[in-house]
Amino acid sequence: MFYQPKDGHGLPHNPFNAIVSPRPIGWISTRDKNGQDNIAPYSFFNAVAYEPPQVMFASTGKKDDQQDSKDTVSNIQETGAFCVNVVGFSELHAMNLTSGDYPASEDEFTRANLEKTECQQISCPRIAHAPASLECKLTQIIRLPGANNFAVFGEVIGVHIRDDCVVDGHFDVTTYQPLARLGYRDYTHVTDVFSLERPEE
């Protein structure tokens, strides 16, 4: 099978969503200029650089009560800060609940019964018991082709790691089993890990 996206795929559901998978989920928490907190999951998310550490996520679509994006992007445009919370398997239902299209005035932390605490380097909430949280300052927002598509880049300026996730000096993902997005409405979580040495090692 071959298709050009501009011509359509002819399948019941878009296969592109499933081809690029699994994708880590960035559970992005923000605060607007008036102090309203927000949290929402984004599966177009990844780390993009080591030194300095940097991450990105992409937001697609818009809400009726925002000009051209969603609450997360709007809040970051206002404040220049956001926090990435890692999603463990045990939080899959709370994560899914925060993906809803709620009014900007609603705090998803409260709706999903998530305990929040303050970040240290930025004025932003984070999930108190997340396996890890990355405090980020905005570096740039890029408008992508297509309606309401934005890529948001940030430098990580603070890192929170839950103590039980550090095993023998390593951040051990098997302690919390990170949730990942597949295609369509499908997800997976990490339970097994193996290592490979580079050819020159």
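Next protein, fold it too.
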Amino acid sequence: MTKFIDLTLPLYDYMPVGNVWAWDVPFQTQPITNDEFNGYELHMITMFSETGTRLMCRAMQDPTAPKVDQLPLDTLVNREAVVVDAPCGFGGHLTVDEINKAFEGVDFRKGDAIILRTGWGDNERWVELGDDYSRRTPYVPKDAAERLVEIMKANNSDLVGSDVAYWGRGDIYQMPEWASKPAWERNPFPSIEAKRFLASYTKEKAYADFASPNVLNSADVMYIGAMCNLNAITQPRVKLTVLPLKIKGARGATCRVIAIEE
């Protein structure tokens, strides 16, 4: 019997993934018509390209690399994938030793995609924690990301997804200067406040805050953030399908992620 498991965060107004950093544009809906008066329902949707569960790739930092709409479908659809458990909780981060231990005894085959399961995306924790789901997510620091890339390259692997809300976490600059403020003091982009903050948020600061995405981009590894429901996967290997929104020229995009157990 085939089992389909949705690993995608639901999109809803002011959901935490896409609501805390200075470049975020919170997901919002606004009615355009309603079925009672107009006979059908339409909404205007406001969001940014990396709201919720999202696929990111080398094009994030390399303008010559294939954009999301140019990625070959065979790299995204029905991929052989292995589940790698690396438990990590509130405010934590994965170490090199923990990455090494996570792969011990795993049936990791050539070309596999990787599902890095920390447990963070289980049990609708995003509802319980609100913005702290993003602010205190476990993450993968630079040295652990470098080790992960080494393991992937040795096995011809080019895709990794995880239930961490963000692969990096802006603890040095973004957290104290922006994200730690209450929501009503974080007027989101395109506000003057957000633009002023980003005008001083140089590449050096961004790489200090979010080092692991730079490691993955530079290695030409596609990576998924903010997957959820990974505890629903019961087998060590699954088929994985990742379908990003086909936005022309986008360098990363919100996506739907499905695991298939046979």
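About the second fold: The two ends are 6 Å apart (CA to CA).
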